[in-house]
Design goal:
eight-stranded mixed beta sheet; two-stranded antiparallel sheet; 13% strand; alpha/beta; single chain; 417 residues; elongated
Amino acid sequence: MLYLELDGNGARYAQVARALKRAILHGQLKPGARLPATRVLAAGLGVSRNTVLTAYEMLCAERLASAAVGSGTFVTASIAPARAPSARSAVAPQSRYAARLRRLPALPLRSGVPRLRFDLQYGEPLVDPPLASAWRRALARAATRSDWRYPPSAGHRALREAICEYLARRRGVVCGADDVCVVSGTQQAVSLLARVLLDEGDSVVVEEPGYALALQAFQAHGARLIPVPTDAQGLRVESLPRGAVRLIHVSPSHQFPSGAVMSLERRLALLDSAARRRCWIVEDDYDGEFRYDSTAIPALRSLDIHERVIYVGTFSKVLFPVLRLGYVVCPAGLRDDLVAAKMLDDVACGGIEQAALTELMRSGAFDRHLRRASVELRRRRAALLEGLSRHCAKHLTVNDSRAGMHMVGWLPGWSGQ
């Protein structure tokens, strides 16, 4: 049945004709399409058949349709539907936020890329059969046992408790369930924190080079970015600006993209600077679980005695990106603001996925996967280093931080032209 909306102006046959004309010009009725039988359309619109016949005659008179005896009435094949102007060209930005979004360059996430013989894409997690099987079982059980009401905006308490136990054991972060807010990955965490902590024009220190999506989230909220260079020891704290800074965004356990691990001296200096400035530090610990030497590097948050560090973690790298779950560990004074912002953004993360992840962590399947993933990443890393040493030693300098899921190689003899 064709849906038509009559405008209520003038005679019924004219209203039907105008509605059909709109359907043709807007592409609802395609060129060459057969119009509904007059009796069917009349019954659907609650008008007489003669009203529809008159409307069809008007369309034929305007050459928008043609009647074929015994076959029906058809949209003229040569009619091209009017092309609506693109939203960007037709409508000016309706807010300062929208205007800033339009100025940002596109940063498409990798998806649907054909499999390559040698795929050097960084950060690809290990999704092996044991993990896939354990996740399917946990998800099936969660689907049958879960509460079908809205989850808490801060996340299921059982998951937050499991995250606290994991962080204390693996990252040296001691926190309680009330300090944790479950979010839809690092990107939502950064966006929510920008809303809670920043006003337009506030200064945000970011690493140079840094993680582009986080930088764009701050820019979209109107922040003034202050790039600070990094070196082999991470962010150069001595290069922090003298003026007021509202927030510092860092990835100290494995700087992205350089791979540098921030030294203890720099960490302590950064914490001292934040305490004196009374600014916040957002610690992005996107793959800090993976180390390839005997020295475990605790999270920056574990050294924080002034409650200035907001710790952001994600399950995208340790499990799989399609699981849009991460978490924020924040100072008590910010928690209510963060949870309120989360509630207004999407109410809560999916309750079934949260329940399944809780089971995965409590059953030991999560830890078993981490051990397998570490072994496999160590093997891949060794193979990559051996291959680079054999074939590229004369042309490539590798920065090996013995951490994370990627390495950076420099081509000192290449000008980039």
